[in-house]
Write a structure and sequence with these properties.
The chain is mostly helical. It has nine helices and no strands.
């Protein structure tokens, strides 16, 4: 294939796929960010449950992480998409709106990635919390620090410091898991790449572009995470 033809196919002019691919890449990044953010909330909640003194809370947290990590991600996506659509249809029908209502692909993707990411972030936060120096917590209490101040000054910063390397790996996984959302019709990068490849009969070109885009986004975000990690490591280097 001639370089000029390649530039035309990947360009933003007439017949070019540059804008659709760029838009789909944006959908991929946004879905990954929202899913990872939801996973962080679930991870904090899950870690709190697993660290609870109450056996029932620990059982809920353990069940969550065990089940989600033991089920393929694509199956979780299917469960949320079809299960959520049936649930939404039932509610709409009860409200007097007949017909079938499907859950939006973006919402399904964010929820599914969030639930999967949350299970792994639960373990990351739990392990990080167990690494805390209990002497500092006791010293803070002896100085009269209340629970909220202890969280803000000691527990949260150090837990995040210990958890950040694992969170970086979980983010990379969440980013790559967005490619599975093409099965529910979300026009993310891989689905748009498949459409372009089928329309132009140039699968090698477009799938190579998709691979390069995932690699580039992963590298950029990975460097950002490492910078945050280096910044948080400064107090420990003094």
């Amino acid at each position: 294939m001639m370089p000029l033809e390649t530039l035309q196919l990947l360009g933003f002019g007439p017949g070019g796929w540059g804008l659709p691919l760029l838009t789909a890449a944006g959908v991929t990044v946004v879905t990954a960010i929202l899913g990872f953010g939801l996973g962080s909330l679930l991870g904090v909640a899950g870690a709190s449950l697993k660290l609870s003194r109450h056996i029932f809370c620990r059982l809920i947290g353990q069940t969550y992480t065990t089940v989600v990590r033991g089920v393929p991600e694509i199956l979780i996506i299917y469960l949320f998409y079809f299960g959520g659509s049936l649930w939404l249809t039932s509610i709409m029908n009860i409200g007097g709106f007949d017909g079938f209502y499907s859950l939006p692909g973006l919402a399904t993707g964010v929820i599914a990635i969030g639930v999967v990411s949350g299970a792994y972030q639960t373990e990351a936060f739990r392990s990080a919390y167990l690494r805390l120096d209990r002497g500092q917590i006791e010293a803070g209490r002896s100085c009269g620090m209340r629970r909220r101040l202890l969280l803000r000054r000691i527990i949260v910063p150090q837990t995040l410091h210990f958890a950040l390397p694992a969170l970086g790996n979980i983010w990379q996984s969440a980013l790559k898991e967005t490619s599975l959302l093409s099965v529910i019709g979300l026009t993310e990068l891989l689905r748009q790449t498949g459409i372009a490849a089928g329309s132009t009969h140039q699968p090698l070109l477009f799938f190579s572009v998709a691979a390069a885009a995932f690699f580039l986004v992963g590298r950029i975000t990975g460097r950002l995470i490492r910078r945050v990690e280096d910044h948080m490591n400064k107090p420990w280097r003094r």
